[in-house]
Amino acid sequence: MSPSVRLQEMIRVIRSARTQGEERGIIQRECADIRAQFRQGDNGERSHSLAKLLYVHMLGYPAHFGQMECVRLIASPRYNEKRMGYLGAMMLLDEKQDASLLITNSIKNDLSHSSQYVQSLALCTLACMGSAEMCRDLAPEIERLLRASNSYIKKKATLCAVHIIRKVPELAELFIPAARSLLSEKNHGVLHGAVVLITELCARNPDTLDQFRKAVPELVQIMKGLVTSSYSPEHNVAGISDPFLQVRILRLLRILGHNNDTASDAMNDLLAQVATNTDSSKTAGSAVLYETVLTIMDINSESGLRVLAVNILGRFLLNNDRNIRYISMTSLQKIVQTDHNAVQRHRGTIVDCLKDQDTSVKRRALDLSLALVSAVNIRSMMKELLIFLSTCPLELRSQTASGIFNAAERYSPSKRWHIDTILHVLTTAGGDVRDETVPNLIQLITTASELHCYTVHKLYRALVKDISQQSLVQVACWCIGEYGDLLLKGECEEIEPVQVTEDDVLEALETVLQSHMSSPATRGFALTATMKLSTRITDNVDRIRSIVSIYGSCIDLELQQRAVEYNALFKKYDHMRAAVLERMPVMDKNSPGHTNGDASGEIKEPDPSKPKPVEAGLLSEPASQVCDLLDLLGGTDTPLQPKPAPTITPTTTSSADLLDLLGGLEPIPVPTVTVYEKNGLSLKTQCDKQTETDVTVTLIASNSTQSDITNFTLQAAVPKSVQLQMKAPSGNVIPAHGLGQVTQTVLLNNPNKVSLKMRIRVSYSHQGAVHQDTVQIDSFPSLGWNCQPSINPL
Fold it and tell me: Does pTM top 0.85 for this prediction?
């Protein structure tokens, strides 16, 4: 290939290469020829050589050796060479390159050139790759060109000023006077650039809002001219006059009218006119209407105008374009809390979007459907959501189940309906529910004493039918253990009674214990239920004793410990078994929220008139042992004085074993410290020092916003001398309104006892946006068994 080959010929040869290796060979030979041309100096071919180098750069090959040639061509007096030099600078240079500083003086000279085309080259280059230093040096020149009489130069200078403001915000005040005067221009390009410039000024410096709010009437007149007459026929798109300018003006009006009654009143009539007269059948018209809706919702508009905006979004829901339906539901999600009744009119259309084939549309429809649930429509909406749950994609099941639980708790018409709804969800998607679902449902069942018989019958049928849904099986086992006597009676008015024998119930529980699908936690529920039945049945106690004894040598430590303790009840404490295994008292919630894995309530005090065998047995204990027991249970308000250890007797051993069997009660809660709070997400830590070198840190996340936080993950890092182990989180969805929490436990082993530091990265998705933040805990000063972190947010 000869050095004088033209650009078109080089392109043809490169495209005709059959292999990548052949293409690389052609590129290498051509780059060598280009370097030779650059070294020959001013031979008239430099601009052609640079053009070929730019094509090589577009193909992804190195072209950095042409940077200095760009600088030399920019300084050339010939227009064709200057044009190619500026083009090369925009492609090969950026603000990080030192060579970019060499063209500052050339740009400044060209900004004062007599030719408007040379001026435009300099303006385009500065707007494309101008660094902060270049912007500071050339800002006065740009401000001067904003007052030029030439519309062609004024348009480019306006967009260049926008770039300068973004790079150096403190220079914004320099362009305020000129920006206000540009609104009187008739040229489309200048007017469009002026609106963009004013929008940027208002967004970067809120202090300028009062100055530009005086221009609202002028902007309204420009917009009316676009709507009622063909302001610029050459910019007509699908029957919409200059939609790009209309969208820009509407965005500026939205900024100027936000939280300002005077400006909002001045644009109300215009917005109503645009919303009424714009054709939504074309994409350009839909874009204008969408910006109109956003403006109406963001300013202090009239109620009738807001209803009109919601109706426009409702029409968008009927559009065949999925993108338009998606942005419509996204906008409705933002206003459903403030204009709930207006959005409710389109509930049917929104629910129909749950059947869409596109997963993103389904997700948006699900979020909006859950937000529309109220006490009035709870039954009809829940019916649709349950149908959707049975057919929705796997990635949406957890979110759907969580939303159904929250809605049922807030608006349930009756406890029976509430229980039936949760059981339906557990039957359909029991493996996708949050960890706290089981204790919350158990708490609900205990409070509905009139439904105990109905619930245990229904759960027994579900257990016999399917044992694959672990959450459902756990609740069923718990209910059978607590209310097994009601199940065996077979007398239930709310449901068709089924005659169940003791053998049937025990076989069902044994099936759960022996199934490979049962998790260790589920087996624990089943074993405890089997043990509790020993006080509720009469003929199969020996069979229960046999089942319990089998698991005394189970490989699972938790299950083995339960079996050993239950065996101890059968042997040493048989006289106490009935009292220990009696029904659980009713649990009441302290707050509408939940805690992960624990029922958020406290146990009611038992009826003092009913004597307890356990209490009777304790009366014979020595006084010191009774005091120790009261201290363990938290029954005394004042701390007990330590006493000399008594001589170990069989009675003392029995009491210790019994306390170990009962497992004690809740420990004194460890203080929590908030380490992160942003966008409605709150992250707290609980720090518990287990030994001299081991520390357990529990991270607790809650959500105070009006929509669920999804894809929630935590990552932690500590110094190399500290060993870190992160347990699995309780979930990745944090329900809205503080109705749930996600917890994650971090185990720290500090053998060298160095100063502890931890960095936590928080990642989550909220309302379609992905957030990621980092917070650093600089120290964990140990005070006894507790430690309080000091936080240093990054």
Answer: no
